[in-house]
Amino acid sequence: MTTPGRPRISLLGTSALLFEAPGAFDLPHQRRIWALAAAASRWPGIREAIPGITNLMLTFETPPRELDGLIAALNDGWDAAEGLAIGGREIRLPVNYGGEVGSSLQSVADHCGLSVDDVVSIHAAPLYTVFALGSHPGYCYLGGMDPRITMPRRQIPLQRSAGGSVSIGGSQTGVSASPGPSGWHAIGHTSWTFFDPSWPSPAALAPGDTIRFEIKQVIR
Amino acid sequence: MIEILSVTGPASVQDLGRFDQYRFGIGTAGAMDDVALRAGNILLGNDENAAGIEIPMVPFRLRFDRDMAFALTGAGVEAEIDGRVIPPWWRSHARAGDLLDIKAMPRGARLYLTVGGGIDVPMVLGSRSTQFRGEFGGLHGRPLQPGDILPCTASAATIGELGVEPAEITLARPNTAADETIVRVVIAGEYDGFDAATQALFWSSSWKITPQSNRYGYRLQGPAVKPRVPIEKRSHGIVPGVIQIPPNGQPIIQMRDAQTSGGYPKIATVIRADLWRVGQARLGSKLRFEQTAYAEALAAEAEMSAYIERLRTIVRLIEEIRTCRSS
Amino acid sequence: MPIKLTDIARLAQILERSGVDTIEIEEPGQSLKLVVDTGPRMAASPTPAAPAADHSVIAKADVAGHFLAAHPWRDKPFVAPGQHIQAGAIVGLVKIGLLYAPIVAPAAGTVDAVIAEPGATVGYGTPIVRIRPPSGSSPIN
């Protein structure tokens, strides 16, 4: 079940199945996940195919009686998956780094042995790709952060972190769409709207879209 | 319409949930005890998915502003309508101006108030359930407050009083001690990351439900259950019922308002047919896990469907008998 | 209106699927009793009405099933002798399959006696509770 180099497939009760791809947390692997998701969402009995970070959750419309067929289809699908290059939109997102919302900016700098300005410029440099949506409505998991500003998640999550928080959690970064608890470190704030249930597609961003953070100001 | 007069704790409008929006980061929300919500709707001749009010704490008071049928299911409560005592799991009829007073909740954790026709809040993304994070669905996406007016599609038809045997009695699990809830679980992805002794501890322990338990998740207290080596997963989708083990070794059962993804190791998942039992387990009470195979979990779901079907049929039978008599 | 054969057939079908073994319908001039044949069972014998004080009123079952004096989640029975009740008050339940049908007081008064035994099989019209109306309306007491 856990052969190295092979995917891991496990059950989430009778509601869903989780497929975890082997290999690195990078765009080529994620593109294969997107391809597998696109295929699996059309399989009979599957309600939704939900990409995570180099993994895929399939929720069941009707739980299959036998799982062997589905497991084989996932394994075959992964092997056959050509990376799906989604030509997403590019969003430029003005960010106020630091300040009240981004109050962890200094501690990230301290943890990484960098100056605040370095953290900001390193964070704002890459073109990030939306790998997946999840956690809470409209939240995007981004890939492409420079590992120099990696900081482990909080031991104890904050009860409430502001909507629009730009945060670092481990080697990932993301922007929260609404206020709520968070185990990540907020380094800045954006006032962009990521989610509105009245939109035809309620989330502003989709996997494959790209984000470039623009330094609006750095508040110390 | 219904006017909320007083509320204790986060009462909210819920239907069975929002099941096909995970790809936007939207969880299911929905009734924590879906069996009770369904039973109430069946008693009233509603669609089983009609929205009701989930009431987790008392006292709770409201006023009906016109004649309508209603039902109370779920937790065992001391309740009165216009001064008359309402038995548990009961359908009754309110007249315009009647006051419904929920005074105490000696049993269970969540009461469901359903009304003939359902609570008529707008359908948002396929459901009327309140989604707190993101603030939509239900009534303005938030818990109910005194002064709130809830629209109802209620029909004015009078129906007689009728009760249902509480699901806790009909669907009782064998060998359940008082003040203990036993739920069946299917092992999950990281189960093998725990050594045999730790796995045994997970099964044998009676887990205390801490006060930090709510619609988001149930945090349990007991012996520390930790994997052989710390496990941190890449963020992946999770569903209500998933039991995560955070670094302190104290399990968290994800519930209806849980985040849609997580990275803590998962030891098991509560099966869908038993998740309502968790939703009715009281803070401070004990919870025990019983391992079950996937095929058995499917059989348990089939049994649940059969129970619901049996309930629907017998309610229809009683209505038919009453119709024959009055015709 | 006479009960039609098609009604009976439909009721019988529902009955079979509902897990209930007996139903009774009674109207002036006709009565219907449907019993699902599930092997030997005790015949549903209506308890003969206790000789009632002249002015007593009787709360009767209106469906066949088992009499419950208390809700299973409640320690106390719905009514006890000596208790004053209003017209329409619930004095007990008839358990029919998964359902509890209420037995209601036809008039206000004081509970004289709970006639039916808890758990007993009752039928349509079985007397359950004897109620003594307020003394003003009763020349005997």
TrEMBL record, chain A:
Which keywords annotate this record?
A: ATP-binding, Hydrolase, Nucleotide-binding
Listed Pfam families = CT_C_D
Q: What is its EC number?
A: 3.5.2.9
**Ribonucleoprotein keyword on record:** no
In the record, what terms sit under GO molecular function?
Answer: 5-oxoprolinase (ATP-hydrolyzing) activity; ATP binding
Carboxyltransferase domain mapped to chain residues: 7-205
Keyword Nucleotide-binding listed:
yes
InterPro entries, per database record: CT_C_D (IPR003833), Cyclophilin-like_dom_sf (IPR029000), PxpB (IPR010016)
Source domain of life is Bacteria
For this entry, the protein name equals 5-oxoprolinase subunit PxpB
Q: What is the lineage of its organism?
A: Bacteria, Pseudomonadati, Pseudomonadota, Alphaproteobacteria, Hyphomicrobiales
From TrEMBL, chain B:
InterPro entries named in the record: CT_A_B, Cyclophilin-like_dom_sf, PxpC
* Molecular function per GO: ATP binding; hydrolase activity; transferase activity
Hydrolase: is it a keyword of this entry?
Answer: yes
Report TM segments. none
Q: Which superkingdom heads the taxonomic lineage of this protein's source?
A: Bacteria
For the Carboxyltransferase domain, which residue ranges apply?
Answer: 23-307
**Keyword terms:** ATP-binding, Hydrolase, Nucleotide-binding, Transferase
Q: What is this protein called?
A: Biotin-dependent carboxyltransferase
- Organism, scientific name: Bradyrhizobium cytisi
From TrEMBL, chain C:
CDD domains linked = biotinyl_domain (cd06850)
Task: Report the Pfam families cross-referenced here.
Answer: Biotin_lipoyl
Q: Which SUPFAM superfamilies match?
A: Single hybrid motif
Q: Which Gene3D superfamilies match?
A: 2.40.50.100
Residue ranges constituting the Lipoyl-binding domain according to the UniProt record? 76-131
Under the heading InterPro entries, the entry gives: Biotin_lipoyl, Single_hybrid_motif
Protein name (record): Acetyl-CoA carboxylase biotin carboxyl carrier protein subunit
The record lists the organism as Bradyrhizobium cytisi
